[in-house]
Specification:
With 362 residues, the protein is mostly beta strands. The strands form five sheets. Strands 2, 3, 4, 5, 6, 7, 8, 9 and 10 form a nine-stranded mixed beta sheet that branches. Strand 2 and strand 3 form a beta hairpin. The termini are far apart.
Amino acid sequence: MTSKIKILLFLWIFLHSSTLLFAQTDKIFKAFKINLSDTLAHPENQFSGLTYRNHKLYLLCESRIQENHIARIYSINKKELKKAIADSTYQPAHKTILIKNLEKVKAQIDAGGNLFEGLEAIDVKGKNVWLTIETISPSLKGYVISGKLKKNELIINDIDILALDIPLKNGEVLDNSGYESIAYKNGKLLAAFEYNYFDTVNRFYSLNKNLSDTSIDYLATAKVPFRITDWQFTGKDKLVALNVFYKGKADSYFRVPSTDSLNYKYTVNDKGEPESFARIIQIYKTSWTSYTSTGILHDIKRSNKKKNDYYNWKTIGLLPSDYGKGYNWEGVTAFKKGYFITNDKFTPTRERKSYLLYIELP
C-alpha cells in the first residue's frame, strides 16, 4: 500500500469516526431561571403541568384538596414572560385561576373505589381546558376531566369524567404513577401514562375532546425509558416531552437495565449509584413498518394499523448538570425558540421550592 493511499485511508477513517462521535454527542440546553414570587415558588403549589396557550403560560397546581390545598392554576402573560427571560431580576406578575367543582369529582372517584390524589396535566384551547387526575396507589384507574375558563375561574364539568385503566407491570400497579401528559390537537386529545417501558405493548391514548364520548383509540409507541412527565404538540404529528428519571422511594420501577447502555449511563454516577436525570425529547409519528420486526404490537387491533399511526422518539437536548440532577421536572411547554419547564417542589437539597426555567439550545 503506497503512502498516499495510507494517508487517504487514514483521513477517511478519521472523518467518519468524527462524524459518528459528533452524532452521538448530546446537546445541552442553556437555562434561564425565572425569578418567581414567593407565592409561585411556594412548595404547596407542587406544580404538575404547564401549557402556553392564549398568549399565557398556565401553571397547574397539583391541588390536593384532601390536604386542604386550594385548587388553582396560575397564569403569566406573554409580556411578563419576555421581561423575565431578558432580566433575571424581574419578577413576573401572575393571576390566579380558582378551580371549581373539583371536590365533586373527587367524591365520585373515591366512591368508585379509587382514591383521588391530585391534578397532573393540563392543556387549553380557547376557553376549554382538559386535566388529568392521578390516583393514590394501588388504585386501578386514572381520569381525564374538562372545564371552561370563566373570568378568573375554571368551572369543571363534574358529569363527564373519563376513566383510563392503569397499566400493570408483572401484574402490579406501579407505585405513585399515573397519566401525567395530555395534549390537544385538531379536536382530539392525546394522553400518556408516565411509564412506557413495558416488555410487550406500549401505547398512547387518543381521546375525543368531548369526554362524554368514552371511545379510546390505542396508538402504539416504541419503548420510552424512565418517565414521560408532560408533553405538548409542537406540530401536526410531533410533541415535545419531558423525559425524567427522579431518584426517590419508587425509582426502582423506572430504572432501565444496564443492557440498555444508551439510557442506563445517564442514571448512574461514577460509583454505579442511581442519580436523577432529565432531558427534552421529541415524540413523533412513524409508520407501522418500523415496528413489524419487534413483535410488540400483537394486541393492537389490525384495523388501527394505519400508516403513520405509531410513535417513536429522539432526544432534543439534556438539561445542564446544575438543573438536570435532583429536580423532579413535571411540566414542559414550547415558547418562542425554546421551552419552559417547571418542577413540582423537589430539589437536590432539603429545600422544597418550585422553579420555572426557560431553556434554549445554544
